[in-house]
Amino acid sequence: MARYDVAVIGLGAMGSAALYHLARRGRRVVGIEQAAPGHDGGSSHGESRIIRLAQFENPAYTPLVRRAWALWDELGREAGEPLIVRTGILEAGPPGAPIVEGSLAAAREHGLAHQVLSAAEARARFPAFDLPADWTIVAQDDAGLVRADRALAAHMAGAKAAGATVQAGTVSGLEPTPAGVRVSLADRETIEAGAVIVAAGAGMAELVPSLAPHLKVTRQPVGWFAPVRPSDCGPDRFPVFVIEDAVEAIYGFPDFAGTGVKAASHRLGRTLARAADARQDATAEDLAPTMEALSRLVPGAAGPLRALKTCLYTSTTDDEFIIDRHPDDPRIVLCSACSGHGFKFASVFGEVLADLGEGGDMPPAFRAFALARFADGGPGAGPRTTARSAG
Ligand SMILES: Cc1cc2nc3c(=O)[nH]c(=O)nc-3n(C[C@H](O)[C@H](O)[C@H](O)COP(=O)(O)OP(=O)(O)OC[C@H]3O[C@@H](n4cnc5c(N)ncnc54)[C@H](O)[C@@H]3O)c2cc1C
Fold first, then answer.
1. Predicted local distance difference test score (pLDDT) of residue 379
2. Helix, strand or coil for residue 279?
3. Exposed, middle or buried by CB within 10 Å (0-12, 13-18, 19+), for 211?
4. What is the pLDDT of residue 274?
């Protein structure tokens, strides 16, 4: 039976980052993935994810994003290409919209550069947008997109270069032993590791059934739209955006790669009974509400649908993250960091997961992600959440 210091289960954004940090620290580490890293059946595929310093979900997360951003920059230098495209962000909604209010509060608390714009000012600066005159519109500089697929590939390449083993396989069980944790694979092979990091995305509840009451997997269709006015939709004039109105919250990205403006609804995901039910089955009909909102609010981008994909959210009942040791065995570290807004943090979460895998302490900023918040079974016990998250 092969023996490692640490085994990482699942090599999406979180697992690949943990693998990278552990390998770079000289640990004997194995990453186990049921599909090829970078595959499109989980949560981490595609070219882009929003990164923003002002966290409308909780202003306390801004320092974490700063650290994540620095780590992405470092990884980009190592990979020989920047992994972040800084575009700024535009957030907008009717007066009192929780996302906009939460973001403004975070910007003020942390002294982040931001401008409250009239609809006319927003149109002049970002001509693809046409927002209602009575809305609150906020532009911020410290935001952009992480090149998601390249970031994941850079973590994987860095991990392998530093000696990590990558093993294809589906983990079917974890069994604590006096010497460590035994990891069983579906093909009957077993591995023993001193510690295990479980970062299985939508597969978390299957591997750790006690998490099931706190997690929900939804299918999230994403579309790429041909820009109506291409010169208004590049990263120089078109920021990443989150727009909230009474029924919808859409987010999107400039056409930075020639593939179109990527946009999606944050709210309209269908719940899946099992992660295994997920398919690449997004349809134009799924994207119709996003298209409608885009035509109304971002007309310069709302050309024909060019491509579409399905992605999975694994959301906690309070739309936050779970990063904690398993209550029954501290050598098993759990990371379920999606709820639609985890990617930007993957670089820093990987660093902290590596600390935990080495037996280190939980940093104070991470206590908000502890399982203890679910003790009363209610989302209200969780971290301060001002709005449903997006991006
Ligand atoms: C449409 C969409 C838009 C998003 N937008 C943003 C955004 O703008 N900004 C942002 O910060 N975040 C965003 N997110 C969230 C972000 O993408 C996720 O937080 C992140 O990708 C989660 O990564 P993960 O590693 O936890 O999960 P995954 O990427 O799903 O990785 C888990 C891996 O575990 C593997 N696995 C599962 N079970 C097993 C098993 N038993 N054995 C072996 N392997 C297993 C899976 O195959 C998978 O590869 C978005 C997510 C989606 C879906």
1. 39
2. coil
3. buried
4. 84
Cβ of 199 less than 6 Å from ligand 1? yes
Place of tokens 């491509």: 307
- Looking at the chain, the domain(s) classified CATH 3.30.9.10 span 85-145+216-316
Residue range 210-267, pLDDT digits in tens: 999 999 999 999 999 999 999 999 999 999 999 998 777 999 999 999 999 999 998 7
Choosing from 9, 20, 32, 44 the residue with most ligand 1 atoms within 8 A of its CB, the one to mutate for a pocket test is: 44
- Please provide the size of the chain in residues: 391
Parallel, antiparallel, or unpaired for β 249-253 and 322-326? unpaired
Instruction: Find the largest Cα–Cα distance for the chain.
Output: 67
Residues of the chain with pLDDT under 50: 376-389
CATH number of 2-44+149-212+318-381: 3.50.50.60
Q: Is 200 in the pocket of ligand 1 (CB under 6 A)?
A: yes
CA atoms within 13 A on the CB side of 136: 14
The CA 37 to ligand 1 mean position distance, Å, reads 11
CB of 340 sitting under 6 A from ligand 1: yes
CA of 13 to the centre of ligand 1 (A): 6
Q: Where in the chain is the domain with CATH 3.50.50.60?
A: 2-44+149-212+318-381
Which amino acid makes up residue 374?
F
**Of ligand 1's atoms, which has the minimum distance to the CA of residue 14?**
25
**pLDDT reported for residue 390:** 52
Could you please state the CATH topology (level 3) that the domain comprising 85-145+216-316 is classified under. D-Amino Acid Oxidase; Chain A, domain 2 (3.30.9)
Does 34 contact ligand 1 (Cβ within 6 A)?
yes
User: What is the structure's pLDDT at 246?
Assistant: 75
pLDDT of residue 267: 78
- Which residue lies with its CA nearest to atom 7 of ligand 1? 391
Closest atom of ligand 1 to 311 CA is 53
